[in-house]
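Hi everyone, sorry if this is the wrong subforum. Our group has a chain we'd like a structural model of before ordering constructs, and none of us has done structure prediction before. Sequence below.
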Amino acid sequence: MKNPKAVVLIVEDDPAILNGLLDVMIFNGYQAVGVEDGGEGLKKGLREPYDLILLDVMLPTMDGFSICRKIRRKKPNQGIIMLTAKGAEEDIVTGFRAGADDYVSKPFSLQELMVRIEALLRRMGKNPGDVEISCRGMIFNGKTLQVSCNEKSMALTRREMDIIAYLYQHQDRIVPKHELLTKVWHYSDAGIETRTVDIHILKLRKKIASLIGDIPFILTIRGEGYRLEPGA
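Answer:
Right subforum, don't worry. Here is the predicted structure as tokens:
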């Protein structure tokens, strides 16, 4: 991906957690910056543009609540997710009062963290599909909603681009249909009977075939889901 989904600042004083979060962010297509000191995190958060700030509560020189309040006063639209101790209800309440948009309790599931990050970015108008993806000689542009190859191009719908972006992000595995329904369509109940995924995939395949012919690209794994062809 040439353009990151979003730029994230991580303020966390535990080096193991910080490095792990940086790796996860970068793997999932985000640009990430990490700092271990609260005061330095505040300076970066105020001085530089970030789509999202992941903010621990207990930090050297300045706690996360104080940082959140100060950033919120200067940047009222800044996306902020607090990292709190598990079960610390008081921290959660204090974080929301300080201006946090959401919280994740430690120890946290990386899947839950990514779901909360993507949900917050969507609410803020930063679509995870607003990326440029290059594969199989094609360029998928999430901003112009065009896929091009060898001077030919086709228009994509927002949903089609989101499907490509999600399958590309998870190209190392098969993506079940119910996962696409919850992550791309944002259905709360992915168990409902619907052919909407199949129909969108079929239309998407036809557009891609018009550019590269019948080369396998989006594979259907019977009874399991979809994945991008490994050589993509």
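For your construct planning: Helices lie at 15-27, 38-47, 64-74, 89-98, 110-123, 158-169, 177-183, 196-212. The first strand starts at residue 7 and ends at 11.
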